[in-house]
């Protein structure tokens, strides 16, 4: 590959779109919302597995070459950037594979306290009361309780990402993993970006935190969730009261495991 590839992953509604919008100010970088690469990666792995009778003719070396080529072929004609950040929540489940395929790659996992992740999604649902969202398979109705249960299921938007994050955090391939807290990104963006640049080994770029932009309105409208990736031009923390009932908010308040240094056995970098 002629360019360096890194990855943005972690929890939804935790700053991945904001981070991408900031990074793309650097003319050497390409970053955006989730791409189809991770899904194609999983599909190709499945098609090259034993469920396909022709897998007999595919060696592990060929599998790796084909998967490595996926990144080249997707991005080569799409961008001219020297450094690409591909975004998807499932990358947290692929640390070992990514390290083998793309040595030197890094995974930045964006994290946020679960009650505020759930609150942010609930706000989107209520703001788009007349448009059922792809987040809930376009099903209308339900309550905040049923929506939270759906989100936290093993295959739900939040549950899958949270489990993937724990798999990465407590796994053995953490050398290329960093956790970036939403609270740090919005309250002290220069510190957050300096840590990102240090982690990926790139010279720092002087970002403009007063004029950040990312346009994905068409994608959000098609997903039935206008505003899903909308970001404010100015990076700043905004205090607000939660929409979640008190019992729901209290239920998940202690689930930010990354804030407990006693359960960081491999010394994952947390910013």
Would you kindly provide a written description of the structure presented here, covering whatever features stand out?
The chain is an alpha/beta fold and 271 residues long. It has one domain (4-270): Rossmann fold (3-Layer(aba) Sandwich), CATH 3.40.50.300. 39% of the residues lie in helices and 10% in strands. The chain contains 11 helices and 6 strands. The protein has helices at 16-23, 37-47, 60-75, 95-101, 114-127, 144-151, 157-169, 182-187, 189-200, 217-222, 246-251, and strands spanning 4-10, 29-31, 83-87, 107-111, 177-181, 269-270. Strands 2-3-1-4-5-6 form a 6-stranded parallel β-sheet, sandwiched between helices. Helix 2 (37-47) runs antiparallel to helix 3 (60-75). The longest helix has 16 residues, at 60-75.
Spatial order of the strands forming the largest sheet: 2-3-1-4-5-6
Which secondary-structure class do the elements indicate?
alpha/beta
DSSP summary: helix tally: 11
CATH class: Alpha Beta
Helix content: 25-40%
Mean pLDDT: 92
Quaternary organization: single chain
Q: How do the SSEs run, as a string of H and E?
A: EHEHHEHEHHHEHHHHE
Number of strands: 6
How many strands, which pairing sense, and closed or not: the largest β-sheet?
6 strands, parallel
* Known CATH architecture: 3-Layer(aba) Sandwich
The CATH homologous superfamily is termed P-loop containing nucleotide triphosphate hydrolases
Rg from alpha-carbon coordinates: 19 Å
What is the CATH fold-level name?
Rossmann fold
Q: Flag low-confidence runs.
A: none
Distance between the termini: 29 Å
How big a fraction of the residues is strand? Answer: 5-15%
Number of domains: 1
3D shape: globular
Organism: Dyella agri
InterPro entries: P-loop_NTPase
Protein name: Sulfotransferase
């Amino acid at each position: 590959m002629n360019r360096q590839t890194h990855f943005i992953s972690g929890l939804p509604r935790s700053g991945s779109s904001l981070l991408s919008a900031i990074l793309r100010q650097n003319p050497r970088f390409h970053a955006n919302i989730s791409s189809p690469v991770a899904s194609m990666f999983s599909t190709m792995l499945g098609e090259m597995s034993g469920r396909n009778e022709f897998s007999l003719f595919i060696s592990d070396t060929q599998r790796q070459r084909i998967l490595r080529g996926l990144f080249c072929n997707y991005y080569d004609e799409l961008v001219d950037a020297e450094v690409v950040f591909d975004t998807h929540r499932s990358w947290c489940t692929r640390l070992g594979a990514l390290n083998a395929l793309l040595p030197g790659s890094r995974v930045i996992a964006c994290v946020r306290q679960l009650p505020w992740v759930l609150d942010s999604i609930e706000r989107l649902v209520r703001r788009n009361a007349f448009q059922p969202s792809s987040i809930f398979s376009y099903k209308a109705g339900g309550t905040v309780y049923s929506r939270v249960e759906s989100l936290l299921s093993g295959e739900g938007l939040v549950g899958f990402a949270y489990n993937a994050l724990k798999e990465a955090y407590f796994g053995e391939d953490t050398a290329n993993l960093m956790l970036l807290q939403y609270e740090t990104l919005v309250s002290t963006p220069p510190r957050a970006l300096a840590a990102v640049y240090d982690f990926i080994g790139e010279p720092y770029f002087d970002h403009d935190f007063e004029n950040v932009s990312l346009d994905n309105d068409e994608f959000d409208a098609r997903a039935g969730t206008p505003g899903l990736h909308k970001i404010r031009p100015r990076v700043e923390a905004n205090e607000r009261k939660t929409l979640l009932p008190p019992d729901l908010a209290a239920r998940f308040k202690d689930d930010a495991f990354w804030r407990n240094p006693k359960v960081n056995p491999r010394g994952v970098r947390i910013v």
